[in-house]
Design goal:
Tumour Suppressor Smad4; 2 domains; 7-stranded mixed sheet; 9 helices
Length: 315
């Protein structure tokens, strides 16, 4: 993965650091001290005004995005998880303002940081960022919501939808394990998975059946698993896996293949690349929760379309 260009960060006039104090890792690590150290190092190395902004609620994002646009901020560093990044960038794009973006991993899910091999050591992070290497950061839209790394429809999205706000804040990734176990017991202990979906790609006529689906903009899934080796946030393509089986043994097999990073071992799993994906639920009233970047923020029927103009990312 090579940068598309390089920018002289010494020419920047304003730099904002958005710090989500309630992202996952804050409860268990010295993240606030690391963010303060990044701010200190940037002030020492840049002529720009460097300002640290607290994010306590996602409802603050539109106001923060407006301030970034109105003050013509050159560079925004987002310290949080993928959900924090998605919420801010979505409001930024709605204002049609595109500053340079950087990410410091500080959340429950940090797939963008993992793909760009970003470290949590402030000195190494700042040293790399000051090089000014710039990468295209392609985004997609899912039912009008921004989509950055991974989406799911099916068992995984139902688990995410059932994780409460306080559970996620207090238990971090363990909340998903606990809720996943409860959901598995409730949904498929004595019966097959009852939900059915179908998907089509790039406006093709054929719809493909599935019991669950995962759509990747990043190669990683669930924080660590290299599920789509061909995918990248620097690429304008979506990568989709359709899982056909509905029994408990099928779901456990799929979970094993994900942890082994071996979806290709099961020829029944359909994998496709596309620029547009449509998914509909054939069970009940057709509405089913959809997970985007770690949060359940929309529902089926779902349409995911790649954006045309990438953001500019400084890792």
């Amino acid at each position: 993965m090579k940068p598309v260009t390089q920018v002289d960060v010494q020419q920047f006039k304003k730099v904002f650091i958005l710090f989500n104090r309630y992202s996952g890792k804050q409860l268990f690590a010295s993240t606030p001290a690391r963010i303060n150290e990044i701010a200190r190092l940037l002030r020492e190395n840049l002529q720009a005004r460097v300002e640290l902004l607290d994010v306590r609620y996602f409802e603050q994002m539109p106001e923060l995005a407006r301030r970034v646009a109105e003050e013509q901020c050159d560079w925004v560093i987002i310290a949080g998880g993928d959900g924090t990044i998605r919420a801010f960038v979505e409001d930024m794009l709605r204002l049609d303002y595109r500053p340079y973006i950087s990410v410091f991993p500080a959340g429950t899910v940090n797939l963008i940081a993992k793909e760009m091999t970003l470290r949590r050591d402030p000195v190494r992070w700042v040293r790399r960022a000051l090089h000014g290497n710039v990468y295209d950061f392609y985004t997609a839209w899912a039912n009008g919501k921004l989509f950055l790394t991974v989406a799911s429809v099916g068992f995984d999205s139902l688990v995410v939808d059932n994780v409460g706000f306080m559970e996620k804040r207090l238990l971090n990734k363990f909340a998903y394990i606990l809720t996943g176990t409860q959901t598995l017991r409730k949904e498929v202990l004595f019966n097959n998975w009852k939900y059915e979906f179908e998907a089509r790609f790039d406006d093709e006529e054929e719809w493909h059946p599935a019991s669950s689906l995962i759509v990747g903009k990043s190669r990683y899934y669930a924080g660590r698993y290299n599920l789509f080796p061909e995918a990248a946030i620097t690429s304008p393509d979506l990568h989709v896996a359709l899982f056909p089986g509905r029994s408990r043994s099928d779901l456990l097999k799929y979970a094993s293949l994900i942890t082994l990073e071996g979806l290709g071992l099961d020829k029944g799993i359909l994998r496709r690349a596309a620029r547009k994906v449509e998914i509909r639920c054939l069970t009940g009233d057709g509405e089913f929760p959809v997970e985007l970047d770690g949060d359940a923020v929309t529902s089926t029927p779902l349409k995911i379309v790649m954006g045309e103009n990438p953001m500019k990312l400084i890792p």
